[in-house]
Design a protein that fits this description.
heterodimer; A: mainly alpha; Four Helix Bundle (Hemerythrin (Met), subunit A); 6 helices; 74% helix; B: 560 residues; mainly alpha; 16 helices; globular
Chain lengths: 199, 560
Amino acid sequence: MTSAYPAPDAESQHAEAHEKHNLTGFIIFLCSESVIFLAFFSGYALLKTSALDWLPPGVEGLEWRMPLINSVVLVSSSGTIYLAERAMARGSLWGFRAFWLLTMALGGYFLYGQAVEWSSLQFGFTSGTFGGTFYLLTGFHGLHVATGVGLMTLMLIKSFIPGNYSGGEQGVQATSLFWHFVDVIWIILFVLIYVWQRS
Amino acid sequence: MTLATFPASEPKPSWTRYFSFNTDAKVIGIQYIVLAFFFFLIGGLLAMIIRGELITPEADLVDRTVYNGIYTMHGTVMLFLFIFPVLNGLNNLLIPTMIGAPDMAFPRLNAVAFWLVPIFGVLLMSSFFVPGGPAYSGWWSYPPVSIQNPLGHLISGQGLWLTAVALSGVSSIMGAVNFVTTIIRMRAPGMGWFRMPVFCWTALAAQSLQLIGLPSLTGGAIMLLMDLVAGTTFYDPAGGGDPVLYQHFFWFYSHPAVYVIILPVFGVFSELFPVYARKPLFGYVYVALASFIIVGLGLIVWVHHMFPSGVAEWMRNLFMFTTMLIAVPTGVKVFAWLGTLWRGKLRLTTPMLFCLGGLFNFVFAGITGIMLATVPIDLHVSNTYFVVGHFHYVIYGAAVMGIFAAIYHWFPKFIGRMPYEGLGKLHFLLTFVGANLNFLPMHPLGLMGMPRRVSSYDPEFAFWNVLASLGAFLLGVSIIPFLLNMVSAWVRGPKATHNPWNAIGLEWLLPSPPAEDNFGEHVPVVISRPYGYGLGQPLVEHQAEIEQALTLAEQQETAR
């Protein structure tokens, strides 16, 4: 795109000229986003270690088997999204779509498992700091998983637009990066909430 | 570089673009600054009411609860609707032109970030009209006061306050991502890191602080909002919560926020002192790097706001030490500016006067800052007018004066007309005298023990309060010559040449005002460090030709 740029529409040319910076901007945004989780995690740890009665009356602790299965699903989806990116790098658009869809399915299963867990719990958002932090952390993370699935849907739709995936597509890279980020956050969250239990 | 780059016959863009969703950083920059000064007048009016109340010892001007709302809103408006937007305006104007970029990295995101400001501004203002009035818990919004909702309405002043602050955070993060990406990726050819103007260094440092600190406040505010409207108990001890936790979240951002404000002003000082002293910036590399040392240290000092809040003894000592360390990199900068001024050929223009006044006030604020960092002194004067005085010396005495300096200095570049020197000097005189008369008496008041955030006080404090109020009214008056100057210069000021101050920098190699895409395809190649005053070396390749072309275009303009 050297000479054939139509001059009159200066405004839109202006706005679209710098798409190559998207990934840099997105990485910077993710670094910033991680600080919110850091704040929530440290708040959680502080409230938990200083609490006299951490668990609300009638609650024994958290069941960890179902969430563990859920975790395995989410962590393996990081693998499938990597395979999707590899397929794209090889130029196999259908391979990319297949692994991408699989990743979306795994993400969807995680959200389903989370919903099942929430509906079976004996405590609510207002059951002291235990209930508050539990729903805040899992809910905020769940929102990110949902966002990730949404972004993947968008990228999948875009992949059917002709000519859109000729070069390395930054949207796919950014989504994949976001997905790994959501994954790492979940591992920390799982350790903090389900592994570290005290009565 | 040919004459064709400066088309003389380009149609004059319509003024209505300032009221539209425009993606040009220079338009957005002016939108930010004008909107910020609109809110500055509102915040200033609230300050006038506060000082009017405090001119007598009795609470006679406004009701006590109204007074609580007024000082809360004064702080919130001035920080979130004046100073951050006005600095983002400067960033928008200066970063792309200083590094030779055609625009910001994400022009649309930039426009969205701007248009969020009037939205949350209106949201915050609307809280004056809800039952129970605006938030009244101070701009810190500490629980337990901030989690009370006595009227029980879903929409309360505090709820609106939290929503507005959260939106402000979203806007600031969008801005920060944009500024950092632009500086990292879009510098002119040849402009390595150590050929970048110091303003860009300080903007990069300040915006990095936004990115690291702001999410902490956002997280803390989300939890506060949940406590307020959803019935959780994160900060309520009755439900196992901890109000001090909020203070950590709040100050982890809001202390660095002061550096977000002051760092770009350090950048302005570093740009302007060399211009008006006609000497290179003393110790350029150290000034540039000191910004990032301030970032690093600035993130580990926040507990000094909480010395009386029941934090552990080791924390008090540790944070006293780190806070005092901040004086080292800031001291490096102050000495660099003094070194720049030393034996320089000073030109006392309006921007230079504002810089000198700002530097003077900053040194004073730095000294009281060290006093406040000391645990025994802090415990004594915490929550008194000493803290208010210190804070206003930093923010008004140094930061706002630096912002005025920047506006006078770069007004010709981006508006294309010269502001009037006489009005400017009058503005400086009123501001400098007013600020010192307003904020200096707060120090003796604090040492005598007058608490902040009260509308009535012991008659023994009356003398200093009258002085402070007179200073405040003088500051109120000082804005009149400023507004007069800006409006009349914009409408019919003398045309500015491309470089009226004889300054060195990429932005001064553009016509005044610059074309929409700045240098466009013809970005000059940078071949030397900035601030080469008196060294006789060109900043960019073909500098003489570029300047010749600009002058020729200006001569043709005047001839027509």
